[in-house]
Amino acid sequence: MENKKIDWEDKPEVKKGAIGERIVNEILSNFGYIVYRPISDGAHKIDFFAHKESAEKKIICIEAKAKKRMAKYYETGFNYNAYLHYKEIQEKHHIDTFVYFIDDFEECIYGQWLNNLGEGRTIPGKTGIVIVWDLCKMQLFRKLTNEELIELSQYTKNGSYDYSTVEKYFDDDCYDEKGNYKNLNK
Predict the structure, then answer these.
(1) What confidence category does residue 121 fall into, taking pLDDT thresholds of 50, 70 and 90?
(2) CATH code 3.40.1350.10 for 8-185
(3) Which of 17, 50, 158, 176 has its CA at 20 to 30 Å from residue 11's CA atom?
(4) Domain coordinates of the chain in residue numbers?
(5) How much is the pLDDT for 9?
(6) Interatomic CA distance for residues 138 and 117, integer angstroms
C-alpha cells in the first residue's frame, strides 16, 4: 500500500481556514485596517496582524476560525494550546488578539477580543484539549453570503455530530436587509 503525504495547503481544514482568513481580511479592510499576513508556507501561529491609522496607532493580532459552533451547546472555541499562545503574545508583547469565527452552521461571522472572552471552560476534544465560550459573549458582524457558504461547504467535514435538530443561536432578526448586524449600522 502506497503511503501518500498530504501537503499542508491541500488539507481540507487548511483550505477552509484560508477562506475564513480571506473573509476576515475583507471585514478588516472595510473597517479601515491594513492587514499584515505571514509570507512563509505552512502552519503559522498567528493568522495576521492589523493596524489602523488612529491616535493610538495600535497593532492587533487577528485569528480567524472557520468552523461550526458546538452542536450540543451554544458554545464555540478552539485548541487550548493556541489559546495559551495568544495569551502569551498579549502578555509578553502587549498585542491584543481578536478572534473571528466564520461559522457555516450559524451562517454568520462573530467574534470577540480574547480578553473579553474570559477564562472559558476546557473540554476534551478530538485533537486535544479545547477551550470554549458561550455564544452570548460574541460580537456579531454579518451573515455569510450564499457564495461564501457554498465555498466553505466544499471543505466542511461530515463530523460525528448531527446538526439537523440543532437550533441556531443567531436568528434572522439580528440582521438588516444587507445581511449586516443591525447594531453595526448605527
Answers:
(1) very high
(2) yes
(3) 50
(4) 8-185
(5) 74
(6) 8
